[in-house]
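Page 47, continued from p. 46.
Same chain as before, 361 aa.
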Amino acid sequence: MARIKSLLVLLALVAQASATVTYVVGSCKPTFPLSSTFQSISAALAATPAPNVVEVCPGTYPEQLVIDIPVTLEGISDGASAGATIAVPSGGLSRGQIDGFGNIVFAQVLVGIASGEVNLSNLTVDGTNNSVPQSDFVAGVFYLNSAGTMNHLTTQNQFGAHNGIGVWLEGGSAKPSVTLENSNLQGFDNTGIEAETNAQSSELTATIKGNYLTAYAALSGIQIGPGATASVSGNLMPGSFFGISIAKGSVSGNTIVGAALRGISTSGASVTLNTIYNSGNGRSTSAAVWVGSSLAAVTGNTITQAGTLGNAIDFDCTAGKNVHSNTILGAPNGLINVPGGVLATETYYNVGTISSASGCP
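Result:
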C-alpha cells in the first residue's frame, strides 16, 4: 500500500511539473483565476511558478521588459478592442544592455540568454518618446544569444538619432535559431532587422520571411552580418538606402522598391527570384544588386527601372559565372565592373550599356 501511495505521489508531481502554467495580463478574461491574473507583463513573467504562456489582453502597457525564461508571450483579442501594445514607460527607456560589440542597446523587449525558446506573437512594440541618448541604440525587440519565434509583431517608432532598429538578433556561444515572420516593421531610422554576431564563423541562424518593412530615410532594411547565416524570403521592402545586405545564407522571393544605393548586397549568399524595382539609382556608383564575391550566386532575379544614374548588377570585379539568367528592364547600365573573361548571360530590355569592365584591373 505504501508503495502504491508513493507511486501516486510521484505521478502527481510529474503531472504538476509537466502542466502548462498560463497567466493573463489585463481584465479581458474575468473568469480566469485571480491568482493567475496580473496588471503588468513584468509581474506575470516574474511570478512563481514561472509561466509557460502569458496572454496579454488588449491595452497599452508602458513597460521595458527583460525575458530570460522560456515562455510564449502573446497578445489576445476580446473581439472589440485594439490589440496589446508595449509602450515606453514614463521617463523613457532606462535600462541599457551592452552587446557583443560594445554597443549600448536600450531594448523595449530584451530576450536575454534564455534557457529555452522565447516566442512573441500578436503584439505591438511602440518606441515613441524613448529618450535614448543619441550615442546609443534603441531597439524594439532584441534577442541576445537566445532562440525563439516572432510572429505577427508590429514594431514602430524606434527613432534614435539614426540608431533606431526594429528587431535586433545577436547570436553567441549558444548558436541560437531565431525566426521573424509575418510582421510589420515601420518607423525605424537605422535598420529594420539586424542579425549578427561578433564572430566570423556563424553563431546565429535566422529565418526572416513574409515581413513588411517601411524604411523610408533609414539606412537599411535587413542587415545580416558575417557571423550569422540567414534565410531571407518573401519580404516586401519599400524605401531605405540599402535594401538587403547579407554575407551567408539565401535571399529569395523578396520585393524591394526604391533602395537608393543598393537593393541587394551579397558577399557570399545566393540571391534568387527577387524583384528589385527603382533601386540603385542614388548615384552613378550604386547598383540594384551588388555582388562582392565569386562565391555568390545571383540568378533568376528581375531588375526593373534602375533609374537615370543607376546600374543593374555590379560585379565588383570579383563575381563570375554564378551570376546569370537575370532579367534587366530599363537601366543605363546592365552589368558593370565585370572581370575579364566573364560572359554573363542575362536578358535585357531597354538597357543602355549592356556590360562594362571599366574600373577593373
